[in-house]
Amino acid sequence: GENVEQHPSTLSVQEGDSAVIKCTYSDSASNYFPWYKQELGKGPQLIIDIRSNVGEKKDQRIAVTLNKTAKHFSLHITETQPEDSAVYFCAAGNSGGGADGLTFGKGTHLIIQP
Amino acid sequence: KAGVTQTPRYLIKTRGQQVTLSCSPISGHRSVSWYQQTPGQGLQFLFEYFSETQRNKGNFPGRFSGRQFSNSRSEMNVSTLELGDSALYLCASSLQTGGTYEQYFGPGTRLTVT
C-alpha cells in the first residue's frame, strides 16, 4: 500500500517569513495530493490539492509543488501570519473510482512566532 | 451549504461495550469515508461507503464496521471496545464524480474508552 512520509514534524518560523513542508510517497499509482490544516478541536480542513498532471498550483499565499518522478510534493506558505499556526497534513490517494482512501503523513506542527 | 456533521461530539465508554457514531455528509455528496486519528498512528483510513456499498476497507479488525443509508448518512460501529480504540473518529464526504475527489471532514467524535 501507499506510504507517505512528512517532514519536519515541527516547524517554527517568524511571522512574515515563508514555511515549507515536504512529503514523499511510495505508490506511483497515486495521482491526487491534498493538504489539510487542522486546528485544535476541529477536523482537518482542505486548503489546497494537486493532481499528478499538474506541477504547481497556487492559491494566494499557499502553493503546492509536485515532482512525480521523484515522488515528492511540498506545501509553501508565504508571508506567514499568526492564524497559520496549526497542524498540517499531506496525503496521497487515487482519484479514480474505488480508491483506497487517502494515506496521510504524520503531520507538521507549524508555529508562527510573533 | 452545511458542512459535514458528526454526532455525538464526545463519548465515554467502558471496555467491552459497543458504540455507534453518526455522520451526515454535505448535501449531494454520495461518498463517506471514515478515519481514526490518534497521536501515535496519525490519521488512518477505516472504510469508504458509496451509494450504500462499502467500496474499500482499511487495515482494521472486524470489530469496526459501518453502513450507509439511502440518504448518504453513514454510521460506524465499534464492538467490544478496547482501551486502544480511544481516538478521534473523523468522517469525510466527497462528491466523487468526474474525477472529483476532494474530501471534506467533519469535526470528529472524540471517543474515550475507560
Largest β sheet strand count, sense and barrel closure of chain A: 6 strands, mixed
Number of strands of chain A: 11
Principal-axes geometry of chain A comes out as globular
Structural class of chain B: mainly beta
Which short descriptors sum up this protein?
heterodimer, A: 114 residues, five-stranded antiparallel sheet, B: 114 residues, mainly beta
Describe the structure in brief.
The complex is a heterodimer of chains A (114) and B (114). By secondary structure, chain A is mainly β.
Describe it for me?
The complex is a heterodimer of chains A (114) and B (114). With 114 residues, chain A is mostly beta strands. Chain A is built from no helices and 11 strands. Chain A has strands spanning 4-7, 10-14, 19-25, 32-38, 45-51, 56-59, 62-67, 72-77, 86-92, 103-104, 108-113. In chain A, strands 2, 4, 5, 9, 10 and 11 form a 6-stranded mixed beta sheet that branches. A 5-stranded antiparallel beta sheet of chain A has the order 1-3-8-7-6, with no helix packed on it. In chain A, strand 4 and strand 5 form a beta hairpin. The radius of gyration of chain A is 14 Å and the shape is globular. With 114 residues, chain B is mostly beta strands. Chain B is 0% helix and 54% strand. Chain B contains no helices and 11 strands. In chain B, strands 2, 4, 5, 6, 9, 10 and 11 form a 7-stranded mixed beta sheet that branches. Chain B has a 4-stranded antiparallel beta sheet with strand order 1-3-8-7, with no helix packed on it. In chain B, a hairpin with a 5-residue loop joins strand 7 and strand 8 (74-78). The model of chain B has no long low-confidence stretch (mean pLDDT 93). The interface between A and B is medium-sized, with 26 and 24 residues.
